[in-house]
Amino acid sequence: MDLAYYPGCTLKTRAKNFETSALAVMSALGINLVELPRWNCCGTVYSLAEDDLIHHVAAVRNLIRVKEQGKNKVVTLCAFCYNTLKRANLVMKDSPDKRFAINTFMDEEPDYAGEVETVHLLQVLRDDVGWEKIAGRVKHPLKGLKIAGYYGCTLLRPQSVAIDSVERPTILQDLLKALGSTAVDFPFATECCGAFQIVNNRDIITERTSAIFGSAVKNGVEAIAVSCPLCEYNLRQTQSSTKQPQSGVPAMPTLYFTQLMALAFGLDSAVCGFEENSPETRTWLKSKRLIS
Amino acid sequence: MRVELSSKKLRSDFVKKIAELSGQNLYLCYQCGKCSAGCPMGFAMDILPNQIVRLVQLGLEEDIANSKTVWLCASCLTCTARCPRGVDLSRVMEALRLLTLRKNKNYVEPSKIPPETVADLPQIALVSGFRKLTS
């Protein structure tokens, strides 16, 4: 099965390991993620002001590229892209005045009325593949490993684009269980890491990640599975053993869920790009004999 | 905190502008404080999110302008998801930021961010940070 795939900027630079691992595990499940031609940056954040239509244009342009492929569905890996594309599509679908203004402004493009559904890879895994099929593909179950899913914000909020329950999601834990691990729930699973405040205020991010890691440690978590490249960056960059030795933030292995899938599927660990992860992630993987 | 109320402020352009930009009816808020209780940035704010709503209702523009609160909001939408009155506070925060940004005033100066930080940050951090904090 072929699915249209929108990578977004970060997947091509700072989160290459997310992309390479995702493409490999999906291929192992018989699904080809076909990268869209001529995609552009989605704008990263959905515009929240009523009169700010210009910032929806970048997202809508990508959705038009999907429609041109004869597809009505596009898959994203990046949680920010997912949210921005999905919300911009709701504007085009539900708001006739805004749709008219945006279509008129983009007069070089065909008219668009919200025909393309944006889905996150986790939804494809749950709804199209199914946990049973994933469990059936596992060659090296992640048995005994206590891993927590950390959802962040943009896959769950607002309600209109949530891929699972806003307050008590289970989609990541369900995947982790299918991979054979002991999925652990912890109170900070849906708490914000501080997101783009990292640009201006690293201390505030450290406060947040410290609370997130602290809660994970208290709940016996030994590694965290993430789905957002900005969460991954913020969690990795504020750990005590890397950039902030004085911060007191505990070190905690942090991996993309697709990297854990690749390991459980017994794929060549080269597809995981673990050199991009934190040193403690690699140390932990070695101690569990998941990589050599 | 001592505040001066006046009908002039209550009916000011500021109140109308925020309602228009955010698309929100701010008078729905009954000050339960759920937004502030769940705000991940609340610990660093000088004025809490529910207090911001009250200040907007009363037209106290200067008090908001003198606070860092709207610049600490990370648009995580926890408040939006939990508001029992259906107020999308993330849109109110955005409207308040835009009042400054649309006067061509940056909250963050991109040129002052160290080049090595820019080189290291993922694009989603840079683009969203600049979208939210620069004009």
Describe the overall structure.
The complex is a heterodimer of chains A (292) and B (135). With 292 residues, chain A is of the alpha/beta class. Chain A contains eleven helices and eight strands. Chain A has a four-stranded parallel sheet with strand order 2-1-3-4, sandwiched between helices. In chain A, α1 (16-28) links the parallel β1 and β2 (32-35). In chain A, α1 (16-28) packs across α10 (257-264), α2 (57-68) crosses α3 (79-94) and α6 (131-137) runs parallel beside α7 (171-178). The longest helix of chain A has 17 residues, at 202-218. The mean pLDDT of chain A is 95. Chain B is built from ten helices and no strands. With 135 residues, chain B is mainly α. Chain B is globular. In chain B, α2 crosses α8 (89-101). Chain B is 53% helix and 0% strand. The chains are: A alpha/beta (292), B mainly alpha (135). At the A-B interface, α8 and α9 of A face α2, α7, α8 and α10 of B.
